[in-house]
Amino acid sequence: MQIHPKKIILLGIIALFTFTGCASDKAQAPTAVKPVTEKAEKVFKGKIAGKSNKAKSISIVVGKGDKAKTVMLKFDDSTKGLEFAKKGSAAIIKYDIKDGEKFATIIKPKLAKLPAGVTEIKTEELRGLYENHADMTVIDARPASRYAQARLPGAISIPVPEMKMGKETVLPANKEQLLVFYCGGPT
């Protein structure tokens, strides 16, 4: 069976109109397309310098060294995470501008980034390791006074300041053994 060339051209024109549509009598003026721009997130990261419940304000030190500056923000009853606005603690504060002033909307603790090869485990996972008598060394990184009050079974006390000073510590000789460090909060 042979298809006539006129039929192929006719089928091509029908397909063209099917996929592109027919031209209309009215020419449409080109419309301007506004580029979509994402709203820049307003965030301060640094150490809390102070919080005044009376003035409903928080001050945070941002930047390092000579470039460090203190920024004041207001807060209100809708601000989330006010419990993380403690003097000296590292925080991330998201804010909006209201009536020309910076208002904190969300305050979160600024957590340390884990080094490569280090993973976080949750309480339930640690409980499972204890129940299965896993071969592990548990290290309590809290101050010695907190360790003396209470600790996980078999935990060794190595407070963070001692780790930072590079004091010699008793770690397992087996470098493949699981090490679990814990502390008293989000650090």
Rounded Rg:
31 Å
Under CATH, the topology of the domain at 43-109 can be stated as: OB fold (Dihydrolipoamide Acetyltransferase, E2P)
Instruction: Give the neighbour order of strands across the main sheet.
Output: 3-2-1-4-5
Question: What would you call the structural class?
Answer: alpha/beta
Q: How much helical structure, as a percent, in the residues?
A: 10-25%
The biggest beta sheet is recorded as: 5 strands, antiparallel
Average pLDDT for all residues: 79
Based on the coordinates given, report the CATH architecture of the domain at 43-109: Beta Barrel
Number of strands: 8
**Topology order in helix (H) and strand (E) letters:** HEEEEEHEHEHE
Q: Ends: how far apart?
A: 79 Å
Beta-strand fraction estimate: 25-35%
Spatial shape? elongated
Summarize the structure.
The protein is of the alpha/beta class and 187 residues long. It is built from 4 helices and 8 strands, in the order αβββββαβαβαβ.
Please give a structural write-up.
Strand 6 (136-140), helix 3 (144-149) and strand 7 form a beta-alpha-beta unit. 8% of the residues are buried. Mean pLDDT is 79; it is low at 18-38. It contains four helices and eight strands, in the order H-E-E-E-E-E-H-E-H-E-H-E. The strands form two sheets. The chain has a five-stranded antiparallel beta sheet with strand order 3-2-1-4-5, with no helix packed on it. A three-stranded parallel beta sheet has the order 7-6-8, with no helix packed on it. Among the domains are: 43-109, Beta Barrel (OB fold (Dihydrolipoamide Acetyltransferase, E2P)), CATH 2.40.50; 123-182, no CATH class. By secondary structure, it is α/β, with parallel strands linked by helices. The protein has helices at residues 5-20, 123-131, 144-149, 160-165, and strands spanning 43-52, 57-62, 69-74, 90-98, 101-109, 136-140, 156-157, 178-182.
